[in-house]
Hints:
This protein is 39% helix and 20% strand. It has helices at 4-22, 33-44, 61-66, 68-74, 90-99, 127-133, 152-170, 177-181; strands at 26-30, 54-57, 79-80, 105-108, 112-114, 119-123, 138-144, 148-149, 196-200, 209-214. The longest helix is centred in the first third of the chain and has 19 residues, at 4-22. The protein is globular and about 45 Å long. The structure holds iron/sulfur cluster (SF4).
Amino acid sequence: MADYREKFWRLRLEACRKALERNHFAAWVVPSVREARDLFREQILPNLTPAPRTASWGDSQTLHATGILDEIRRNPEIELIETFDPAVPRETLIERRRQALLVDLFLTGSSAVTEAGQLVNLDMIGNRIGGITFGPRHVVLFIGRNKLTGNIEEAMRRIKQVSAPLNAMRHEGFKLPCAATGRCMDCDSPQRICNTWSITEKSYPKGRIRVILINEDHGL
Ligand code: SF4
């Protein structure tokens, strides 16, 4: 029997892909993170011009699941700026995240994508939003089907009520009220992870932002 869930999400993701293309993003739908990695390796990376010599990334569990970062680490032609090494002092990591805003290739995920083909993100520091918005020549986003929402309001509600508390729980070092209650308390904590929103309605220039929609649940 056909997997009706796969079909349900494939149809919705395909409609989202078309909306993203109308908004000047380049977009694909793939069945799994393995196909996302293959698409990136075989079709996207070889066709980037000029060929990227530097790369970096913004935190994304979906990106990690593809294994692409490890492939880039092994690629002698690309220098990867590591922005999340736990052995490196935080001040150094912040400086690297500043440098990451000028790389040739920036990889990350998105907090949400709407059916109308808009990207919605909420950051603590802003390095992920910054890289998506301006600086890196090429941006590639990996987005699981669970990030698809009906509209911007639904996306913002989901991010604040689901993604952010889960993210707070994931970072055990942060003492945030939502990690204790499972609900956003609109806190004033200096460790607050919800500081800057971005809504990307269209890619400028056309095709600068590439979006790979994955027919699996990934990320928060
Ligand atoms: S605003 Fe504060 S309480 Fe609300 S989700 Fe963000 S970190 Fe948690």
